[in-house]
Design a protein that fits this description.
The chain has 244 residues and is α/β, with parallel strands linked by helices. Helices cover 25% and strands 20% of the residues.
Length: 244
């Protein structure tokens, strides 16, 4: 499934290296909002901090952009909040808890419908993960069981934010690539797009490209596409519309 007219910014992470919260992404967020100054924030992935604290954290990060951030939990009717939103942002945290709350509040279809109108959707980490077909390629622990693993299905592939294949010396657990290989065995026709920290997928007008908020080494901006047992590198020079 791919929602026509989707206008998405799917960030791998809220930080990269030692940067401040969302600082590397401010330019990408500003470009995606394109003059919109009111943002509806969905803090449901937050577990160890309150929704008020999470919303205030995002507001602080976006102050210099002149963006007013309002948490969806502040509304009596979250569906109405989605329907009236100029743009939606969904933050990171625990993907299972996020999706559980979306189902509990009956927000899957309202978000899909609103995105189909061209309204900007911005996600990072868990907020990006749920834009895919399912959350079965998340890195998170299943601390709660959502109604379904089926996600927003704004794009026609799986996502894996925070991608790294680093394996510390002496560590005998599976690498991220090995975990994704398990998914591919059972789902050989479903692509997975793995995005590294500091990068994002920018989707608009049925076109998708990998973009980066990083300066310096271009190699840091590379992502990967996993499908049918193969791992293919993706750079900011590549055209990846065929994944939509």
């Amino acid at each position: 499934m791919f929602i026509e007219n989707a206008n998405l910014l799917l960030l791998s992470s809220s930080r990269v290296g030692s940067t401040e919260y969302l600082q590397h992404a401010l330019g990408m967020i500003g470009e995606k909002l394109n003059g919109i100054t009111e943002l509806l924030f969905v803090p449901y992935a937050g577990v160890t901090l309150s929704y008020d604290e999470y919303t205030a954290k995002v507001q602080c990060a976006l102050n210099e952009q002149g963006i007013k951030v309002t948490g969806i939990h502040e509304y009596d009717d979250p569906i109405t909040a989605i329907n009236n939103a100029q743009a939606i942002a969904v933050g990171g945290g625990n993907t299972f808890h996020l999706l559980h709350q979306l189902y509990q509040n009956k927000l899957i279809e309202p978000i899909q419908q609103k995105v189909s109108t061209g309204m900007p959707y911005i996600g990072w980490s868990a907020g990006s993960n749920i834009a895919g077909l399912t959350i079965r390629t998340t890195n998170d622990m299943p601390i709660i069981e959502p109604q379904s693993f089926n996600a927003l299905q704004l794009v026609n592939f799986q996502l894996n934010p925070h991608y790294t294949d680093h394996s510390p010396a002496g560590h005998n657990g599976e690498t991220r690539a090995q975990r994704l290989a398990e998914f591919m065995v059972l789902n050989p026709t479903t692509p997975i797009v793995a995005i590294v920290e500091g990068t994002a997928l920018d989707i608009k007008l049925n076109t998708m490209r990998l973009i980066s908020g990083l300066s310096g080494s271009k190699s840091l901006a590379n992502g990967f596409i996993f499908k049918a047992g193969c791992k293919t590198e993706m750079t900011t020079d590549d055209i990846v519309d065929d994944l939509l």
